[in-house]
Amino acid sequence: MEPAVSNPPQWQGLALIAHGANRVCVRDPQDAALCLKFELPANERTRVGLRQRVRRWLGMRMGYFGENQTELRAYRKLRARLGDALDGWVARCHGLAMTRAGVALQCECVLQEDGRPARSLYSHLFETTGHDPAALCGAIDRMEAWLLRNNVPLFDLNAGNLVVSSRAGQVELVCVDAKSVISGKEILPFSRWSRVLMHRKLRRRAQRLRQRVAAALADGPALAGRAPPH
After folding, report:
1. How confident is the model at residue 95 (pLDDT cuts 50, 70, 90)?
2. pLDDT averaged over every residue in the chain
3. What is the pLDDT of residue 132?
4. Is 184 helix (H, G, I), strand (E, B) or coil?
5. What are the tens digits of pLDDT across the range 160-193?
C-alpha cells in the first residue's frame, strides 16, 4: 500500500492510514493500537493485467481468494511455524471483523514513538522524514538476513508494504502485508519449493530495494551495491 498524506483524510468516517490498489487501511476507532483493512469495490481499484483481474474476480466472489483472507492465511502460516520469532518483523493479523463499514481484516498498527502510525518506506523515499539512506539500507540488510535465516518467502519487498520503525534505538523495517508468502505471480511456485531458489529470489528483491533507496536518496550507488551481512 502507498502512504496516505499527512493529516490523513477520512474514509467512510475513519482516519485513513494508507490507500492501495485493492484495499484501504484505516485506524481502528475502538483501539488506536489496531488498524482495519477493507477491500475496495471493483470500480475503486486500479487497472491491472489479466491474471490479476482473474484473481480479483475470484476474490470478490469467494472470500477465500480475497486480499484479506489471503493475508490472514499467510500470517497464520508464518505464526504456526515461527511463533514469537515473527514479532517485530511482520505485523500481527488478529482476524476478520465486522464493522459498520463492512468486513475488515484487523491488524496490529505499527506505531511511532509519538503514537502515530509508522510511515512506509515509500514515504521515506519521497518525503522528508529524517532517516538517512545508510540507516534504511541497514534495515533492509537485517530484514533480508531474517528472511533468509527463517526461510520466509516474502517476495513482495515493496516499499509500500514495509513500514519504518525503531527497535532498541535502531531503524528497522516491519512488513505490514505478508500475502506474497503464499500468493505470487508464478504459475508453478518453484521459488517456494526450493530453498536455493527462494534465497536467490529474496536476495534479488532485497538488492532491488536497496537500489531504489540509493536512487531516491542522497548517498547513491555505494549503498546499493554492498553485500548484506549474513
Report:
1. very high
2. 85
3. 84
4. coil
5. 999 999 888 899 999 999 999 998 776 777 788 8
- Count CB-CB contacts under 10 A for residue 84: 7
CB 157 within 8 A of CB 148: no
Q: What is the largest CA-CA distance in the chain?
A: 50
Tell me if 165 sits within 8 A of 110, measured CB to CB: yes
Q: Phi and psi at residue 215, in whole multiples of 5°?
A: -70, -35
Residue closest to 13 by CA, chosen among 24, 2, 5, 21: 24
3-state SS, residue 212? helix
> Which residues, 6 or more positions from 82, have their beta carbon under 8 angstroms from its beta carbon?
150, 152
Which residue bears the cell 508494504? Answer: 161
Identify each DSSP E strand in 100-156 by its residue range: 102-108
pLDDT, tens only, 195-216: 999 999 999 999 999 999 988 8
What 108-113 contacts at long range (C-beta under 8 Å, 24+ apart), as own/partner pairs, is: 108/33, 108/34, 108/35, 109/17, 109/27, 109/28, 109/32, 109/33, 109/34, 109/35, 110/163, 110/165, 110/174, 110/176, 111/32, 111/33, 112/165, 112/166, 113/166
Distance from C-alpha of 201 to C-alpha of 143, rounded to nearest angstrom: 14
> Could you give the percent of the chain with pLDDT greater than 70?
80
> Has residue 45 got a pLDDT over 80?
no
The phi, psi pair for 121, rounded to 5°, reads -55, -35
CA of 150: how far to CAs of 53, 75, 154, 188, in Å? 32, 14, 11, 22
* Cα-Cα-Cα-Cα dihedral sign, residues 84, 86, 126, 118: negative
